[in-house]
């Protein structure tokens, strides 16, 4: 009986297996391997002001982007593989839902990447961190 009580007390004193990350730390899932695929962009007349997955209204002049799996609030670098131009975006929405496309960009970001005229471009998307005020992903 004494042995059982000692074991029970020892189990209670064991360190936690999943320690909490220090405040300000970046979650591992928001940094990682680059993905390659096609980027497209939001049509400004159809989507301006409509709520995104994070609840905020879409602004075509923002650096917002939509991705199917990266957590909301993830900061990513998007590089146009045709011309080498790169921009930083924040994942604030879900999509795209067209086969072969991996990210939807704001019209402003599409302009800056030199892909607005063609409508799509081959890109590399590399998660680089998490927005400081990002909440938990749903």
Automatic annotation (TrEMBL):
<feature type="domain" description="RlpA-like protein double-psi beta-barrel">
    <location>
        <begin position="35"/>
        <end position="125"/>
    </location>
</feature>
<feature type="region of interest" description="Disordered">
    <location>
        <begin position="44"/>
        <end position="66"/>
    </location>
</feature>
<comment type="function">
    <text>Lytic transglycosylase with a strong preference for naked glycan strands that lack stem peptides.</text>
</comment>
<feature type="signal peptide">
    <location>
        <begin position="1"/>
        <end position="16"/>
    </location>
</feature>
<dbReference type="InterPro" id="IPR034718">
    <property type="entry name" value="RlpA"/>
</dbReference>
<keyword id="KW-0961">Cell wall biogenesis/degradation</keyword>
<dbReference type="Pfam" id="PF03330">
    <property type="entry name" value="DPBB_1"/>
</dbReference>
<keyword id="KW-0456">Lyase</keyword>
<feature type="region of interest" description="Disordered">
    <location>
        <begin position="113"/>
        <end position="138"/>
    </location>
</feature>
<dbReference type="InterPro" id="IPR012997">
    <property type="entry name" value="RplA"/>
</dbReference>
<dbReference type="InterPro" id="IPR009009">
    <property type="entry name" value="RlpA-like_DPBB"/>
</dbReference>
<comment type="similarity">
    <text>Belongs to the RlpA family.</text>
</comment>
<dbReference type="GO" id="GO:0008932">
    <property type="term" value="F:lytic endotransglycosylase activity"/>
</dbReference>
<dbReference type="InterPro" id="IPR036908">
    <property type="entry name" value="RlpA-like_sf"/>
</dbReference>
<dbReference type="GO" id="GO:0000270">
    <property type="term" value="P:peptidoglycan metabolic process"/>
</dbReference>
<keyword id="KW-0732">Signal</keyword>
<dbReference type="GO" id="GO:0071555">
    <property type="term" value="P:cell wall organization"/>
</dbReference>
<protein>
    <recommendedName>
        <fullName>Endolytic peptidoglycan transglycosylase RlpA</fullName>
        <ecNumber>4.2.2.-</ecNumber>
    </recommendedName>
</protein>
């Amino acid at each position: 009986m004494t042995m059982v009580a000692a074991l029970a007390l020892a189990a209670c004193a064991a360190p936690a297996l999943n320690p909490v990350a220090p405040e300000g730390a970046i979650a591992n899932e928001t940094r990682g391997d680059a993905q390659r695929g096609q980027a497209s962009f939001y049509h400004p007349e159809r989507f301006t002001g409509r709520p995104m997955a994070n609840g905020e209204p879409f602004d075509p002049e923002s650096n917002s982007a939509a991705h199917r799996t990266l957590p909301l609030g993830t900061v990513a670098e998007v590089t146009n593989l045709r011309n080498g131009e790169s921009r930083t975006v924040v994942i604030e929405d879900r999509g795209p839902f067209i086969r072969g496309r991996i990210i939807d960009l704001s019209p402003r970001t599409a302009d800056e990447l030199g892909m607005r005229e063609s409508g799509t471009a081959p890109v590399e998307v590399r998660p680089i961190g998490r927005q400081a005020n990002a909440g938990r992903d749903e």
